[in-house]
Amino acid sequence: MTTLALLPDPARPLEGHVAEQAFADILDGKVPDESVAHFLSEMALRDETSIEIAAAARALRHRMIPISAPANAIDVCGTGGDGAHSLNISTAVAIVVAACGVPVAKHGNRAASSKSGAADVLEALGLNLDRAAATAEESLAELGIAFLFAQKHHPALGRLAPIRRTIGRRTIFNIVGPLCSPARVTRQLMGVARVDYLHTVAEALELLGSEAAMIVSGEESLDELSIAGPSQIVATGLCAVSEARIAPEDAGLTRHPLDAIRGGDSAYNAAALAALLDGAPGAYRDAVLLNAAGALIVAGKTDGWTNGAQIAADALDSRAARRLFEAWIAF
């Protein structure tokens, strides 16, 4: 039996090299499950630092199965855990933004805290997840979109799943997952459910060499830009925004109550996404347009919220997004 590694004291912030070695040992199965659970729980209780988040991301990146991607590819995803049980916003945003001519490597998984994750809703709409994984590089290069199923690209996280379920609350890996795109994107729109974590995540992205990023949180503790009210934003690198706070009307959109975008199971959410691609108006469309505008700003496609929302609306109204999705399903 191999010698088990000892973890440092998680009650105190860790230096980068110490943290990275600790997470390497955890991901490589060199630490007993009870020690891992204690380490992750104690770190979460005091709140992880940007240095620790970046270190954990580096360790996971070294162990992921990557794909090649265009240099201008972006990702749109959130940490989850906001408890809003909304429709699949970032998945719809990925399709719309890709239809606007920006390659999108959508990183995602099955539902953890919600009823329908990105993988669940795409599967319900007819996307063959195994085939999508096998052809991700080709679909990203030819169609401008790919779904990177986390379970297939991050095998090192497999052993942690039961430990995280035992812990029963968020850990650093909820934050780290979105920072570890298998496409190694350097531009992304990332949602976090805690406004007070925006700067921490932004600093971690900068430590990881991000070119441009927008980290957002709806003030209702949403891991996306809120259609119900203001959202807080921290932009990094080449991201062409200066706003620290954005509301739907700043993009020419109407506010809607959060209940108007409340989702259900994968079949329910899939029906809503299909209707969106067919031109259905309403709260879901406006939520997608707002977040798509943010993604288009990150991608350098526009520098304005209203213009970004209009570009996204044109992709829906012209049925470009619908045609792209149909081509993706058939790819």
From TrEMBL:
Cofactors (names): Mg(2+)
The EC category is: transferase
Sequence positions that bind anthranilate 2: 164
Q: Which GO terms describe its molecular function?
A: anthranilate phosphoribosyltransferase activity
Cross-referenced Gene3D superfamilies, in alphabetical order? Answer: Nucleoside phosphorylase/phosphoribosyltransferase catalytic domain (3.40.1030.10), Transferase, Pyrimidine Nucleoside Phosphorylase, Chain C (1.20.970.10)
User: Where, by residue number, does Mg(2+) 1 bind?
Assistant: 90, 224
In what residue span(s) does the Glycosyl transferase family 3 N-terminal domain sit?
19-63
The encoding gene is trpD
Ranges for domain Glycosyl transferase family: 72-321
Cofactor, free-text remark = Binds 2 magnesium ions per monomer.
Q: In which pathway does it act?
A: Amino-acid biosynthesis; L-tryptophan biosynthesis; L-tryptophan from chorismate: step 2/5
This chain belongs to which protein, by name? Anthranilate phosphoribosyltransferase
Record-linked SUPFAM superfamilies: Nucleoside phosphorylase/phosphoribosyltransferase catalytic domain (SSF52418), Nucleoside phosphorylase/phosphoribosyltransferase N-terminal domain (SSF47648)
* Keyword line: Amino-acid biosynthesis, Aromatic amino acid biosynthesis, Glycosyltransferase, Magnesium, Metal-binding, Transferase, Tryptophan biosynthesis
Which purpose does this protein serve, as stated in its record?
Catalyzes the transfer of the phosphoribosyl group of 5-phosphorylribose-1-pyrophosphate (PRPP) to anthranilate to yield N-(5'-phosphoribosyl)-anthranilate (PRA).
Q: How does it assemble?
A: Homodimer.
Q: Which organism is it from?
A: Sphingomonas natans
Q: Locate the residues binding Mg(2+) 2.
A: 223-224
Binding locations of 5-phospho-alpha-D-ribose 1-diphosphate: 78, 81-82, 86, 88-91, 106-114, 118
InterPro entries for this protein: Anthranilate_Pribosyl_Tfrase, Glycosyl_Trfase_fam3, Glycosyl_Trfase_fam3_N_dom, Glycosyl_Trfase_fam3_N_dom_sf, Nuc_phospho_transferase
**Pfam annotation, one family:** Glycos_transf_3
Entry binding sites for anthranilate 1: 78, 109
Q: Report the sequence similarity comment from the record.
A: Belongs to the anthranilate phosphoribosyltransferase family.
- Record field: catalytic activity: N-(5-phospho-beta-D-ribosyl)anthranilate + diphosphate = 5-phospho-alpha-D-ribose 1-diphosphate + anthranilate
Which EC numbers characterise this protein's activity in its record? 2.4.2.18
